[in-house]
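hi! just following up on the protien thing from before. the input was this:
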Amino acid sequence: MRVLITGGAGLTGHALCSAAPDDVDVEVTQRTRLAAGRRAHTVDLAEPGAVELLLLDSGPDLVIHTAYATDDGERDIVTATKNVVDACADAGVELVHFSSDMVFDGEHAPYREDDTLSPVTAYGRQKAAAEIYIREHLAPATVLRTSLICSLDPVDPRTAAVVEALTIGKSITLFTDEIRSAVRLDDLVHAVWEIALMESEARAGVWHLVGSEPVDRYALGLAIAAYHGLSPEAIVAGTSAESAAGRPRNLTLVSDRAAASLSSTLRPVTSLFAG
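and the predicted 3d structure came back as:
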């Protein structure tokens, strides 16, 4: 089996490469950052015709689409995903697409796989648009919704930002009412590979791959501080309701399908920082 992972230089893409089963031939894409350890194709997925040429060169059985960028999400999320979908449809290649809990509004938690999309942020709307396009143009595809992804090796960007701020005593505000089903990166990639290796009919549709216990951003910050032996005094407890952030508050996802179908365990994210 040959699998092409887009975004091979990103946190999730790189971890998927590292955890790939021995009998899977993995290739990756890269754009501005180099992806180490696998055959890498330098490509801009949003460029017309680029993905068609990529699939001809790589010849994958399955594409795992993790690549995205938020500076120009219409281009690098919506257009790039459309290009990936169209190329997979034309080439008869199966697709596993990474989406986000941000496709929901945060006011009607918990959310299940078949709940109506209701994004309130630009990123959420872009991810929702990508999901809708997949549903309309590549129905057998797989959509994986996840949440905040936490890792210690390598350290994920959000954890690194908390550690950096506390190390220099810089004040950071974390919301007590912004609740996410954050997930451990190591658990996530094992679940993704279990799904990727399923027959296409069993794999198709939406999956929620998230930690088994929701956590608010403030509590997660305290757990990060404790793990690294840093004083939490610079962490200020705030509320999304009192801010102008306009972000979804409670994005708890229910993982009924994963719980019923996978042997992989999706532990509480706080277990990562338990010692």
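The longest strand covers residues 94-100.
The chain has nine helices and 14 strands.
cheers
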